[in-house]
Amino acid sequence: MNTFNLTTEFMGKRYRVDIEHPHSIAIALDFDGKQPNHFGAEPAKRQPLQGGDFIGDTTKGGSCNADSIQLVPHCNGTHTESIHHISDQKVSVGSLLNNSLSFACVISIEPKLAEESSDTYRPALEDADRVIDKAQLQDAIDSSTLDSIESLVVRCMPNHDVKKSYCYDETNQPPFFTQEAMQFLADSPIKHLLVDFPSVDRMYDQGHLTNHHIYWDLEADSHQLTDSARCDRTITEMIFVSDAIDDGIYCLNLQVPAFELDAAPSRPVLYPLIECSETHSEQEQ
Q1: Fewer CB within 10 Å: C terminus or N terminus of the chain?
Q2: What is the C-alpha separation between 222 and 213, in angstroms, rounded?
Q3: Where is coiled-coil annotated (predicted)?
């Protein structure tokens, strides 16, 4: 039987990409069951397409199944967004991933109370806010690794399955990054940031979206692109990283449909890297 082998080199070592054991870190969107939800959006819905004598439901006499769906990508599950999320100018998310494979580092961090951190945010932090600060990122990933990857996957601890159907609202607010933490990431080579909470910004932030602006290098509260804007970057939110996935380096395939929108539902897939026993010179012989 023919097999497809993919090898790569990372930080001077040769690895085999284990394409036979992928890990999807997207939350499966169940249109008929429990769903995650953010900001009080309507749940994602589906209904059979109907027109004339046709109905897209074989259980109701239709010749095939064809659903019409309704959802808000930012609020109804795993999604990837472009800088157009905060800019007037159109930069479609579907146009950004011509090279959908990248080295990704998975890190696990337990958010801390804002009162335990010296970092800041705009608007001002409240003591009970749960944040990921710069010091935690620096502890979780060394500088040489950060300089060698394009994607960072952040898993918050504790990590419970309830994240797959959690409803975030005023009484159940998710964690977010401090300004200093986001500036740390913005100053790195990271192009694709993936997190298991619904927004890199505070849920109720007076509309500033401070961290989005920092990451994409837009002036505070501005919606206008500049020459320095990082239009090549994406943010993926509301992922779920199973406990079966260890922290470390993976090959990431970030799958996004060709939507001409600021955001779209997405399916990030992690492939383990297995270090090759032979040296690079031996492989070339």
Answers
A1: N
A2: 8
A3: none
**Residues 129, 59 share a domain:** no
Residues in CB range of 181: below 8 A, 6 or more apart: 119, 131, 132, 133, 134, 136, 137
Domain enclosing residue 56, as ranges: 40-73
Question: Domain check: are 171 and 94 in the same one?
Answer: yes
Geometric angle at alpha carbon 43, from 169 and 233, rounded to 5°:
75
CA 160-250-105 angle, to 5 degrees, is 70
CATH number of 108's domain: 3.50.30.50
Separation of alpha carbons 276 and 285, rounded Å: 15
- 2 part of a folded domain: no
Element (H, E) at 65: none
What does pTM read for this prediction? 0.95
Number of domains in the chain: 2
> Computed from CA positions of residues 71, 153, 197, 155, in that sequence, does the dihedral angle turn out positive or negative?
positive
216 by DSSP, 3-state: which?
A: helix
Tokens found for residue 180: 């200093």
* Cβ neighbours for 159, distance < 8 A, ≥ 6 positions apart: 108, 196, 241, 243
In tens, the pLDDT along 75-103 reads 999 999 999 999 999 999 999 987 789 99
Contact between 14 and 7 under an 8 Å Cβ cutoff? The reply is yes
Alpha-carbon torsion, ordered 41, 47, 51, 54, to 10 deg: 170
DSSP class of 148: T
Phi, psi values for residue 56, rounded to 5°: -85, 60
137 and 47 in a single domain? The answer is no
